[in-house]
Amino acid sequence: MNRYLKRVSIALMALLTLAGCATRPINPPIAHADPNTGYRYGTRELKDNDTLVVLAFSGGGTRAAAFSYGVLEQLKDTEVIRQDGKKVRLLDTVGVITGVSGGSFTALAYGLYGDRLFAEYEQRFLKRNVQGELIARVLNPLRWGNLAFTEWGRSELAADFYDEILFNGATFADLDRRKDLLVLASATDVSTGARMDFGQEQFDAICSDLNAVRLSRAAAASSAVPVALSPVTLNNYGGTCDYAPAIAMQIASQGLDARAAARAKRQADEWLAFADGANRPYIHLVDGGLADNVGMRGVLTVLDIMEARYVAGLPTPFDHLQRFVVMLMFGNHHQRFHYLQLLHKTLFKMF
Question: Residue 190 and residue 227: Cα distance in Å, rounded?
């Protein structure tokens, strides 16, 4: 028996050594923060109609992912006639989607696949036992070598799993190619409690290229429940790319009302805190629901930015809009059904 246990121990140690070569993915640096490039609000070419719909998908695990998917289906199946006589799907009026935790999977997957989502998402994600399969991977000895290294935690294992079943290696560069939609997944900085969006606006603060980051890592960070999953770690190169908060944030106090100006200043202060790469060489991210489980703070931030640009006489992607609709997707299981009914009725009246 002792000889058998010794052989098993040696075999396991060999497996750990072989598997331990993997390290976490490294988000690459940028030499210069350019506010006119990258995956951000200012580079989107929003649809040229007069109504913009913003969806905010809250956290709540698989139920949140399923509910947000149901909302997209409802918008896809609902057609309205605009004032110019053109018939459009309500889904085609959506220009911005924010996702937190479970809602981030649906948001990112729709940004990547578009209408193809409705043929694949249920089988590839919603109807799978994602949690069970993930636990099985954590318990698989062949994967323990990676988990033994501090740079490669359970959330990196989860990110690889999400990549395999849903995102297929896609990065934010794939989302950036679609200019009429912006999808933001949010996580929480475990050190400060500040919200961090996976958008180039905030990645400028850490002097990093978001386009090289895998969508699966954003989803893993946004849904990394503390203790159950490890934080997702980003390299922070802040202070090396001539970064300054967006001009809209710098001028925010000059023309906004008091509450909007206060929000803009708080956002600028948070971005500047991320920019201190010398004292904070790493950013550790966990579930976005800890900072904002509704997903509304990202919406408020973009509104403040656009209003500040307007006050300063600068163009915005929203200049042509006459109506701006924000829909928050949250609540318990019974409330969500009523939200879908209310959503259907309300949007019909708007067009």
Answer: 12
